[in-house]
């Protein structure tokens, strides 16, 4: 923005993040829409007549199926995506996730990178959330793909 608007005193070069409904002083907005988190903000922005650019993003996330959260793919034990390292038997939570990540990064697991790409934009279901989970490793990888290009 500074390249184009640095001489315009009306423009704050530092973008702000608005999580709530406080949009009174906003004149323009860029909203990265994951389809869920900012529904109300998008509605309120439009209702207030704020000029907005809505950019749809594809986000992979992990939810807890025991809490009734909707999910697209179950990634727990017994599936292709399950962590082969069990808490207690193979270490504590941190250790089994570290082992999964190590194997994931080196292609030592039962699935390929091509298999993983099929999960992009999906909601992954497990029993761990909100605690740390091997699913976070998968989601983090998929969500970082756009960052690298």
UniProtKB/TrEMBL annotation:
Domain Minimal SLOG: 8-63
InterPro entries (alphabetical): DUF4326, mSLOG_dom
Domain of life where this protein originates: Bacteria
One Pfam family cited in the UniProt record for this chain: mSLOG
Domain (DUF4326): residue spans on this chain: 68-140
Listed name of the protein: DUF4326 domain-containing protein
